[in-house]
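Marked as duplicate of an earlier ticket. Keeping the data here for the record.
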Amino acid sequence: MFKHWKISRRDAVMVVFFLLACVALWFLDVLHQAAPPEGVKCKARVLSVDNSNIFTIGLLRKGEQHVRLRILEGPYKGREFNGTNIIRANMELDKVFEPGDLALAAIPYGVDESFTVVAQDHYRIGNALLLFGLFSLLLLVFGGITGFNALLSFVFSCLVIWKLVIPLALKGGNVLVITFAAVTLLSAVIIFLVAGMTRKGVTAFFGAILGVLASCLMAYVFTKLFKINGGMMPYAQTLLYSGYEFLSLPDIYIGAIFLSSSGAVMDLAMDVAAGMVEILQKRPDIQRHELIGSGLNIGRSVVGTMTTTLLLAYSGGYLTLMMTFAAQGVGPLDFINNPYVASEAVKTLVGSFGLVLVAPFTAFVGGFILLRAKKPAEATAPTEEPAKQDDAAV
């Protein structure tokens, strides 16, 4: 069991470095726009509810729900307040509490129990931490040190997106440059944490970056050709009216395309690179063109399922949209020309385009990085421990 937790000194230094990087990102504040809080938001238990002011309008409900809350944390811990929950006939945002539920209560400073607080939403932090804990435990038990590195890269990716990509984009930076730089950084972190500083990792990294670059260029071209303005993204219009009218929604849409497909691109690049390393370890005398051909064959075997993975991932998020069109009898002409459908088609096909290209990119890069050129005298001389040299540290 403990053999899965062995780690080299160089990899240990890299893990410590990225742990410190995660801590630094956690405390990083790029926007500096947080206003002084006028109150606190606390976990509360719903003791009772009053639904007498809620009215049913067709399939929707509208009105005001009154609740009794006991605060479970913070400066008001143990105190009870009356709360309100406004229901606006919007299934996307409305919530209805029941006795025993946990709620997120917004309480201004300096109020007493006579004040009516706002029951903002269901409290989900506990369940989110539980789910993340189970996910982390599975990674650690199954993967050992590799699972720990994968978990570290997962946390680092979340922090980079939340602490760097989003704030820098809101400050008016070029979204395409920001997202491509973020994907490059995340690809390096994820690949080198999992594969180590090896020739295999370098091969997978360059193959992935070339695939992402191809996706970026394709997304830029076809977003213009399809006349997609980015307004169909969730909360896009709300974002513009929140004081960020200077943002370019098409650029955000393009950045989202190759950012969302970069994970599958890295996965495929690593599959091809790892397969080529295995072949090279079994046949250290293999010729460069044969190794590249083997990499291409590995890529062909994987790319079919990976492109379908992107299709299912994207289409699953718009299942209700497709069901609505089917229920209304919308024809293929109107269906394909709908901006929501067109945007998803571009996202899926452009992401798949970059995914298909990453296999030959990785194969050709690996042919030159993994198989070092041999001197004439070395071509016929026996090599010592050939199985270890090709996956050695860079």
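See parent ticket for discussion. Strands lie at 39-50, 54-57, 60-71, 80-88, 102-108, 116-122.
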